[in-house]
Amino acid sequence: MHEEYRRGDFLISTDPVRLDVAAVHAFLSSTYWARGVAIEIVARSLRNSLSFGLYLGERQIGLARVITDRATFGYVADVYVLEAYRGLGLAKWLMTCVVDHPDLQTVRRLLLATRDAHPLYAAFGFRPLRAPEDHLELRPPGAIPGECEAVASQSAGAGASCPCMAGQTEGNLNDG
Fold it and tell me: Are residues 145 and 70 in the same domain?
C-alpha cells in the first residue's frame, strides 16, 4: 500500500510509479554524494527502496529514499528539495513523512550520512553515532567514480598511489 500526504498544492507519495527517474538522476548526478552516478544505478536504487517523492502537480521537486527491510533497520539517503522550493518547510515535512511512515515504526535504527544538513536531521532526533568505533564501511574500488583519485590527491599530493587500490595489482582488479 502506498502512502500519500498533501499540503496545499504539494504532494508526498511513496508510489514508485510516480517517481521521475530522469528528474531524480538529473539532481543526484550533480550532488557531492552521487556526482556522476549512472541513471541505471539511480533507477535500481529507487526500485529497491522505500522512496518518498515530493511533487508540485505532476513535477517531482524532491525525494527522500529509505533503504530498509521495513522491520528493523533503515538508511535514509538522497534527501533533497530543488533549490527553487527550499525555505518552505518541505524538507521538514518530507522527513516527518519518513519517520512517521507505518512501515518504519518497528525499526531499531535509522542511519544517515550528511555533510551539511545536521540541523534538519537533529530536529528529528538524529545524533552522531553513539559508538562510531562499532561501525565499519566497505567502499569497493571504483564504486564511486573519481573518489579514489580524489582521496589519493588529498592525502599525498600529485603522483600519489590510490589508497583504494592498496594491495591490488593490475591483474586482480575486479576479476572476482
Answer: no
Q: Is residue 35 part of a domain?
A: yes
- pLDDT tens track for 121-151: 999 999 999 999 999 999 888 777 666 655 5
Tally of CB atoms within 10 A around 175: 5
Cell numbers representing residue 129 in the block: 553515532
Residue 119's identity, in one-letter code, is P
* Amino acid present at 90: L
| Sheet strands side by side (includes 109-112) | 4-7, 10-13, 50-56, 59-68, 73-81, 109-112
Core vs surface per residue 72-102: b (16+ CB within 10 A) or e: eebebbbbbbbeeeeeeebbebbbebbbebe
CB 49 within 8 A of CB 14: no
- Residue 110 C-alpha cell reads as 535509522
Q: Domain range for residue 100? A: 4-128
Q: Are residues 160 and 103 in the same domain?
A: no
Domain count, the chain: 2
Q: For the whole model, what pTM was predicted?
A: 0.81
Cell numbers for 141, please give them.
Answer: 574500488
Q: Is 12 left (phi over 0), alpha (psi -120 to 50) or beta?
A: beta
Question: Distances from the Cα of 142 to the Cαs of 128, 158, 172, in angstroms?
Answer: 28, 19, 13
